[in-house]
Amino acid sequence: MVYLSGARLSKDARRAVVSVAGARAEASIVMLDLERGITTLIGDPAMTFEYGAVWAHGERGVISSEVRNGLQSFMTFPTGGGAGTPLLKGESGFELDPCSITPDGSTLIFTSAPLRDKTGDIMTRSLGKEEPPKAFMRTPDAARSPCLSPSGDLLAYVVAKEEDIGATLKVAAYPTPSTPVQFSATPVFWNCW
Q1: H/E element holding 172?
Q2: Kind and range of the H or E run holding 6
Q3: Is residue 189 scored above 70 in pLDDT?
Q4: Span 157-170, pLDDT tens digits
Q5: Does residue 119 come out as left (phi exceeding 0), alpha (psi in the -120 to 50 range) or beta?
Q6: What stretches of 12-150 adopt beta strand conformation (E)?
Q7: CA angle, 133 as apex, 130 and 134 as ends, to 5°?
Q8: What pTM does this model have?
Q9: φ and ψ at residue 59, rounded to 5 degrees
Q10: What's the CA gap between 117 and 36, in Å, rounded?
Q11: Which of 3-7, 15-19, 80-84, 187-191 holds the top average pLDDT?
Q12: What is the DSSP code (8-state) at residue 36?
């Protein structure tokens, strides 16, 4: 059985990138040419754990998570296939998820969650400079799936506990975080706008 998740449509709606996972949790990234019906494997075909793709600025590349030797990192892969370029080396015991790119392409927004409790923080990483990641928002909750508005001034994300079915949707200002505003009183299932 194959599972598809995290589909991201290109701005011109002609392509999509999606995570494809098998029954044993192996995963890879595939680009779908929606006009011609052609699929292209993105990343290293020898890898068994690549997931969470977002379009890089200009949509000539894809930023994805890759797990090697138990350590999760971010890689940038060309959309035509081929070798990737390391973007951010992860830390042992943390799960990383690339989520959004600022409209000017200068910043990656992602989550970093310790595997021990999955609380999760929203982080940023400059894409034009060699700088360490910065915390955008630290919360005691499990902040997940941050998605930047097309205008780049609002960041929506969800908060969920392990026992929750669905999640609570919150929105904060970006790039300077405001006090988050809760937009749902009941659990929601979230997908980026």
Answers
A1: strand 168-173
A2: strand 3-9
A3: no
A4: 988 765 556 678 88
A5: alpha
A6: 15-21, 27-33, 38-42, 50-55, 61-68, 71-78, 85-88, 94-101, 107-114, 121-126, 134-137, 143-148
A7: 125
A8: 0.85
A9: 55, 30
A10: 43
A11: 15-19
A12: T
